[in-house]
């Protein structure tokens, strides 16, 4: 489990999300996390 904690410390976003800069929320700077996009295939996520 120590590997999961280490990954979380480096990446503040949820699984399948990536940080793309910072944004302001309630007067504080927070990570701007967006859903990862598999742009190499060019297809949308299947439900």
Description:
- The chain is α+β, with helices and mostly antiparallel strands and 47 residues long.
- The protein has one domain (2-35).
- Helices cover 19% and strands 36% of the residues.
- The chain is built from 1 helix and 2 strands, in the order H-E-E.
- The protein has one helix at residues 2-10, and strands at residues 17-25, 28-35.
- Strand 1 (17-25) and strand 2 (28-35) form a beta hairpin.
- The longest helix has 9 residues, at 2-10.
- It is elongated.
- The model has no long low-confidence stretch (mean pLDDT 78).
Mean pLDDT: 78
Number of domains: 1
Taken in chain order, the helices and strands follow as: HEE
Note the overall shape: elongated
Major β-sheet annotation: 2 strands, antiparallel
Over the alpha carbons, how many angstroms does the gyration radius reach? 14 Å
Distance between the termini: 30 Å
How many DSSP H or I helices?
1
Major sheet: arrangement of strands: 1-2
Strand residue content? 35-45%
Q: How helical, in percent, are the residues?
A: 10-25%
From the structure above, extract its key features.
47 residues, alpha+beta, 2 strands
Characterize this entry briefly:
The chain is α+β, with helices and mostly antiparallel strands and 47 residues long. It has one helix at residues 2-10; strands at residues 17-25, 28-35. It has one domain (2-35).
């Amino acid at each position: 489990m120590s590997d999961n904690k280490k990954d979380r410390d480096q990446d503040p976003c949820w699984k399948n999300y990536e940080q793309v800069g910072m944004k302001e929320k309630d007067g504080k700077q927070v990570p701007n996390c967006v859903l990862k996009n598999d742009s190499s295939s060019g297809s949308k996520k299947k439900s």
